[in-house]
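Subject: Sanity check before I submit

Could someone independently write out the structure tokens for this chain? I want to compare against mine line by line before I put it in a report. The sequence has 542 residues.
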Amino acid sequence: MKEPEEPNRITPQSTEATTNTKATPGKRRKKRKAGESSVSAEERQQILELRSHRYGMREIALRVSRDRKTVRRILEEEGIINRQAPDQASKLDHTGGRSILTDYIRSIRADVVPRTRVKRRFETRPAEEMQVDWTVYTVAIAHAPVRVHALLCELAYSRRAHVRFYRNERQPTLLEGLSLAFENLGGVTQRVVFDGMSTVVLGRIGSNGKPIWHPRFVEFAKYYGFEPYLCKVRDPDRKGKCEKFLRFLEDSCIRGSEFSSFEDLNERVRDWLDNVANCRVHGTTGLVPDEVWLSERDLLIRLPETRFAVHEDAVRQVGPDATVWIQGTPYTVPSHLANRSVAVRLYAEHFEVLDRAGRVAFSRRYVESKDKGKLQIDPAHYATLPRREPIAPGTRIDEIFLKRFPQLAGLREGIAKRMKALAPVHLRALWRLADTYGEEAFLRAARRALDYRRFNAEAVRRILERAHPVPEPPPVTPMSPAARTLALLSEVDPASLDSFAHLDKAASSEAKPNDPTPATETSSNQINAQPTRNDTEDHDEA
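---
Independent answer below. Compare away.
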């Protein structure tokens, strides 16, 4: 039996052949195909059977545990798939191509499926429909880009439009904007069309998409007497009049314009509506919207005498400085509302603060975006507070201190800058130190503190304590009971009749004014005239 040769064994012949072999320029060594002889006959047969059952190359590769390149090579060797790539067909003068099939399919689809959806045009009768829609623009207000929300209400018959810009699209803002639009248009139509905005509809139920209207919006619709109508999902053409007008608004009024404030934006848009949009000849009707609106106005539903309550109720706490926070900005309110909880009505463009009786105590517009977060002060709110009496000149502690110690002006200024509101406290402490240690010692300590830039009274006190220590009092020895008794008795004042002298003065004041005898002598004579006890006893015995 022949022994197998060792692989890659180096022999002298192979070394010589390798040395004499030279690489031929311009010829590349042909790479051997990977797995050329590694596929067995059984695997090849399995690949062909799977292909005959219309399996793809990816599925075949997963089933036989081979890569797709190997499966493709086997199928190409068997002639099942073409070796030529699609882009090589032109090299063989082939007149066909992929575009032939594409053109044929396009011709079939042109007869069966329309390329675009057909839009249905319709018109409505006078005072029958109004279309409402929101849109968002970014405009330049006071040289800064601001995101604004435009509310459009357009009468479908006359094409008269009302546009107003707001800061948000919340429900109170929508209801207030609709109320202003109804007043501007002179009434409301029978039907008002909306899209799926969350402030109007909460959702849809059923296969037909029945809307669930917002309860507050239902109250609003009943109050004004119109019927809300909801567009289908992804159907902007239902209110195409609004969509077209919003593009016209952007191209004719908004784009390239700059405004000084939010009020300026609404004023210029109102002027554009009165002089351009509602006065032009409409491209579809061929009529002027304002002229057609004059005949439609009489058919609109009349508005109630009072506006619907479109505000948002809230409660705010007023601080001790009579300030209240509204949408991230502090405003001052009348001083009698300080330290109280107040009711607040939030409207789209302004707010109102109510007192305890429910009356409007304060009302104002919201600040611009550039002033948001800054304190808004109205001096009239503090007019009822008592004013502080002006301080007489020369009575301030800093002025008195500087008058007494003019050489310590630098120390006073440093304390004022460093301690701010606590500066008077430190100056009074320095004043007491000067009285305790004397002006000479105090001035030396204050100058030293000034040299080290220690602007506080505590530093001067420590310097004085080190330079002039206060002697400690001698220790007190405990006292015996006898010594404590003597000490207590020594503190008692001796007896005296001086405290009864007022009695003699009272007796002299009661004497008669024509009696020449002094009161003291009279009292003494009366005392001498009275018999003694011994004399009386002797008289009785006789």
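---
OP: Matches mine. For the report I'm noting this point. The longest strand covers residues 129-141.
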